[in-house]
Write a structure and sequence with these properties.
The chain is α/β, with parallel strands linked by helices. It has 3 domains: 138 residues, Rossmann fold; 60 residues, Histone, subunit A (Orthogonal Bundle); 73 residues, Helix Hairpins (Orthogonal Bundle). Helices cover 50% and strands 10% of the residues. The chain has a 6-stranded parallel sheet with strand order 3-2-4-1-5-6, covered by helices on one side. The relative contact order is 0.17.
C-alpha cells in the first residue's frame, strides 16, 4: 500500500501539497485533521474548497455532525473501513492534516481504544452538561483514581473520555494508553513529510487567511453553528473563530477585533503544533521548510 503522510501546522500549505502529490501519482487525499471532519465548519476549519475537491478525490472531510464528539479511535476505524474498499488498493494514499495523534495512530504509535456505545457517550455528555466537570472528576476519582490524578478537575473533555472508556471496557484509559497499537500504514514504507514554515511567513498567512475566511462566509457559518444550540463543550464549538465571531455577532467585539483575536489564537495553536511535531515525530520524517 503506497502512502505519503503530510503533517504540519495550520496555514502551512499542507492541503496544496497533498493535492499536488495526489495529482502527480494517481492518488487520493485522506483527511488527518480533527477539526476538518465536522460538517458545519467548512470555511472556518479551512477544509478544501469545492474546486480542490473536484481536482482529486478527498475522503473523511465534513462527514461528522457538529453535534457529535469525534475521537482518534473513530478516525482510525473510519480509515480502516476506507482502506478495505477495492477502489483505493492501487491508488497512492495521501494523508494530510495537523492532528499529530492521527498520524501516531495510523502508524501504530497509539493504543487502540474501545468503541464507545452511544448510550454511554450520551450519558456522560448529559452529566457533564448538568453537573459540570468537577462533579465528574469526583466520579472519576472513585472509578479510575489513576487517571483522575493526572487530570485537572476542569478538563471536561479528558474527564468524560476517561469515564466513557472505563464504563465501556472496565479498564483505565491510562493502562490502555500504555499498550502499542495496530498500524494501518507501515511508517517505514511510507514517505513522511512535516512542513516547517518560517514563523514570520506563517504569521502573515494566518492573518490573511482568517481575513479571507470572514470575507467568504465564515460569519454566516458561525451563525448556522450557533443556531444549533449545541453544548459549548463540543469540539466543533471550540474551533478557533467560533467564540470570536460569536462575540462579534453579540455586539461584544468589532469584526476587526474578532479577526485579531482569532489570528492570535491561531498563531498560538500553530506554535503548539510545531512543538508537538518537533518532539514527537522521529527522524524518519522529512522536515521541509516552506
Amino acid at each position: 500500500m503506497r502512502a505519503v503522510l503530510i503533517a504540519g501546522p495550520t496555514a502551512s500549505g499542507k492541503s496544496a501539497l497533498a493535492i499536488e502529490t495526489a495529482l502527480a501519482e494517481d492518488g487520493v487525499v485522506i483527511n488527518a485533521d480533527s477539526m476538518q471532519v465536522y460538517d458545519t465548519l467548512q470555511i472556518l476549519t479551512a477544509r478544501p474548497a469545492q474546486a480542490d475537491l473536484d481536482r482529486a478525490p478527498h475522503h473523511l472531510y465534513g462527514h461528522v455532525p457538529a453535534s457529535q464528539t469525534y475521537s482518534v479511535g473513530r478516525w482510525f476505524r473510519d480509515v480502516e473501513k476506507l482502506l478495505a474498499g477495492r477502489d483505493l488498493r492501487e491508488r497512492l494514499l495521501v494523508f494530510v492534516g495537523g492532528t499529530g495523534l492521527y498520524f501516531k495512530a495510523l502508524t501504530g504509535g497509539l493504543s487502540t481504544m474501545p468503541s464507545i456505545p452511544e448510550d454511554i457517550r450520551s450519558k456522560w455528555r448529559a452529566r457533564l452538561e448538568h453537573e459540570g466537570p468537577e462533579a465528574l472528576h469526583a466520579s472519576l476519582r472513585l472509578l479510575d483514581p489513576k487517571t483522575a490524578e493526572t487530570l485537572d478537575n476542569a478538563d471536561s473533555q479528558r474527564i468524560v473520555r476517561a469515564l466513557e472508556v472505563f464504563e465501556a471496557s472496565g479498564q483505565s484509559i491510562r493502562d490502555l494508553q500504555g499498550t502499542g497499537g495496530r498500524a494501518l500504514i507501515d511508517p517505514l514504507g511510507a514517505r513522511r513529510i512535516v512542513l516547517t514554515p518560517d514563523r514570520n511567513l506563517l504569521r502573515r498567512r494566518i492573518h490573511d487567511r482568517f481575513k479571507a475566511m470572514v470575507e467568504t462566509g465564515a460569519i454566516a457559518e458561525v451563525e448556522r453553528l450557533l443556531a444549533q444550540d449545541l453544548s459549548p463543550d463540543l469540539p466543533a464549538m471550540k474551533a478557533i473563530g467560533v467564540r470570536e465571531i460569536g462575540a462579534y455577532l453579540k455586539g461584544e467585539l468589532t469584526i476587526d477585533d474578532a479577526m485579531e483575536r482569532a489570528s492570535i489564537a491561531t498563531r498560538q495553536y500553530a506554535k503548539r503544533q510545531m512543538t508537538w511535531f518537533r518532539n514527537q515525530l522521529d527522524d524518519g520524517w522529512e522536515r521541509r521548510a516552506v
